[in-house]
Design brief:
By secondary structure, the protein is α/β, with parallel strands linked by helices. The protein is globular. The protein has three helices and seven strands. It folds into two domains: about 55 residues, 2,3-Dihydroxybiphenyl 1,2-Dioxygenase, domain 1, CATH 3.10.180.10; about 60 residues, 2,3-Dihydroxybiphenyl 1,2-Dioxygenase, domain 1. It is about 25% helix and about 30% strand. Strands 4-7-6-5 form a four-stranded mixed beta sheet, with helices on one face. A three-stranded mixed beta sheet has the order 1-3-2. It comes from Pseudonocardia halophobica. InterPro entries: Glyas_Bleomycin-R_OHBP_Dase, Glyas_Fos-R_dOase_dom, VOC_core. This is Glyoxalase.
Length: about 130
């Protein structure tokens, strides 16, 4: 077996970096001041991974004939919360800030409070927490 990765970065290519970062700020991620005007931004995620953002112009600068994707992708992000009430509060805060709700909070049969919103580029962002054991 060859070398193994030593870290993980999930990257989002965004049409509007400021809007994307505003969404992820509202989600609760730590976005540094002045990041909205950068071509590339990386944010720490709980658990030690990172979430990166590149503008379409950044990708085009090193990819010949780059055309931004259209339509829905196959990537979804999921963020865990401590309580079901936290899921409801996060969903309410994000949708109040303009994020479209894909799925209102509900108690899923697999034992979680679950909801889905979309970020400004259409990425599905799931919000979840374990339901109390009865």
């Amino acid at each position: 077996m060859g070398p193994r990765p030593s870290s993980t970065v999930i990257e989002i290519v965004t049409a509007d970096l400021a809007k994307a970062l505003a969404f992820y700020r509202a989600l609760g991620l730590e976005v540094p001041d002045g990041a909205d005007d950068q071509p590339h931004v990386e944010l720490p995620l709980p658990g030690g991974n990172r979430l990166a953002f590149d503008t379409e112009a950044t990708i085009a600068s090193f990819t010949a004939d780059y055309t931004p994707p259209t339509g829905e992708g196959r990537l979804a992000l999921a963020f865990g919360y401590d309580t079901p009430a936290d899921v409801d509060a996060a969903h309410a805060a994000l949708t109040s800030a303009g994020a479209p709700s894909e799925r209102e909070p509900f108690d899923a049969f697999w034992g979680q409070r679950y909801a889905t919103v979309r970020d400004p580029d259409g990425t599905h962002v799931d919000l979840f927490a374990a339901l109390p054991q009865t």
